[in-house]
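Quick illustration for those who missed Monday's session on complexes.
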Amino acid sequence: MAEDTNAVVEESLFDEFKEHSISEFFRKNRHMLGYSGRLRSMTTIVHELVTNSLDACEESEILPEIAVEIKKIGSETFGVNIEDNGPGIPPEFVPKVFGKMLAGSKLHRLVQSRGQQGIGAAGVLLFAQMTTGKPLKITTSTGNGTIYEMEIKMSIERNEGDVVSEKTREGFWRGTRVEGEFKDVTYNRREQGPFEYLRRISLSAPHAKITLEDPEETIVFERTVNDIPERPEVMKPHPYGLTTDELLHISRVTDSSRVSSMLNNELSRVTMKRIKELEEYVLRDTLLENYRSSVFWDTIVSCYLNFDFTKYFDIYGHYFDKKEIEDVKQLINGLPEGLGELKTYCMKYLVTQYLVQKLDDEELKEIKNHFKKKPENFMEYMDKKYLNASLLDEFRRKLKDITKSPAEFVKSLVDLAMVSDTELEKYRKAIRDLLKKNPKEMTWKDSEVIVNVLQDMDFMAPSTVGLRPIGEENIEKSLNTLEPEFLKTLTRKPKTYKGGVPFAVEVGLAYGGEAGRSGDESRKMEIMRFSNHVPLLFDTSGCGLTNAVKSVNWRRYGLRNDEDAPVTVFVNLISTHIPYTSAGKQAIASSNEENEEIFNEIRQSLMICARDLEKHISKIRKEKEEEQKRKYVMKYAVIFAEGLASITGRPKEEIEANVVNLLR
Ligand SMILES: Nc1ncnc2c1ncn2[C@@H]1O[C@H](COP(=O)(O)OP(=O)(O)OP(=O)(O)O)[C@@H](O)[C@H]1O
Ligand SMILES: [Mg+2]
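Prediction with adenosine-5'-triphosphate bound:
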């Protein structure tokens, strides 16, 4: 009987089974788009429309002029109008831009832009419609003599935009103006409101002129740079950080007819010469894979690795805990997959070896504890206390050679009679066949093999052409408005993170003056976060940028503690795809476990700036101490000179001058 009841329940459950549109989903989850809290919702409206205007102007190489108007039009209703001098939107696209979620020109390209999802504009319309029931009014023209005025509503079930009314008039004007009415919003000049948002966006887009007309007055954020930034370029994924899934996806959409030409056409820095090399690397890994669980594994590993971990553990093993040694052994067993992580340990060991040989017992005792810390923490400590950049570079170079070249590896196997010529030829043919394959037929395994060897090969760093930093000089100009006593900015070279996506980090450190935010008694550390030049004002604690800043041990760099310091930390992450934690785009997904390349790069850049800050702070401290000493000398010199003058009968002034000279 019980079985029968269950069957009935299941049936009725599936009676309710329905499909929903993406707009329906966001109607129910508007907080995911940043529409939660009255002030935050207002900032989100401004943010979505202003970033669209800036993106459109930059793509069309127009110096942006953006006017934001915020009016109170009812006891709880606000009107928001935003106008730009951008390229305009062709009328047939207007309903799609504002009425359809996941539609836009940016989602499918690896281009650095503020928007990337195709949701922002439609989100603004959805929010207007949900709170006032009114459409958005769009006035736009591409400058061809016709100006379109359209009212758009969203059909939520269909995820489509509907034109409520449409008018055209003649006139020569180019740009886009969006007008809407919203409830559940408010306006004030607090830190998370539109005023601060626009102030910050003008710091990171110094070529834009932005006017804000709020209920009190009109404020103009003038441009400080008159050059139009170069147009952002489409970039291809870089082999470093490419994932199996990403390469498989590329194989399904590419026009190339062979795997080899696909690698050459669709990835950056992969030349035909590199693809020839890749054949040898694949051969090496195939051979390695073959012997994985055989009795010859240790021999094979010694032919594969240049670094003798066993010998190393015999000499230095007592510095590390047993668990770490076990972990490393596991990584060796899992080769070639664990190679990246193995390199981190290897770096630690190279440093340990160097220090053990160089330092005396006292110093070794002090750092012995740190040998047991995680490799990255240990490295940071050592980097700061004992090592210099050129030494670390030397270790990094050594690290590149942790594995033998494929030719050497194959040769040692042949010498040991582990593999015959016929077998080798069989493997080589299979690899050639893989590279000749039609990409559409590529399997998960094929993709995995290629992605693994790409990580181990040498490629030039991603090109700088596609990424558009704000630039050290411009960040300096912006931060100088705080009149700090110390300022350092740094724009780093591009790197890649998961998926082969290029990114670069820019940081600035301002100390003293108006830097930091005012706290109860003293100034506190202020973190200004930006991604692709857009200020991030919300979700501070869940953001990878904040966490990277906080992970730096600021006390080591002369600050009293992490919080209590007159410091403004400026971080801008630029990339062709920013890994946001949610569709609201206010926090970055990066930590020492996820997209750690970004996390580490921010830490590194900040630590470079912090080293100079430390020099500055200790110079100031020394100067203060000197000054104190001088005051003491002066105070006692007078008393001392008086005494001596009365004993010797010589003039007091002469003795005083001599005493001061003597004590200095
Ligand atoms: N002011 C504008 N001028 C010209 N084109 C615009 C303007 N605003 C939006 N667009 C076009 O409409 C598309 C959709 O904008 P929307 O904000 O929805 O998405 P997005 O900017 O691509 O990504 P995101 O959701 O991350 O903001 C954009 O990709 C762009 O092509
Ligand atoms: Mg957008």
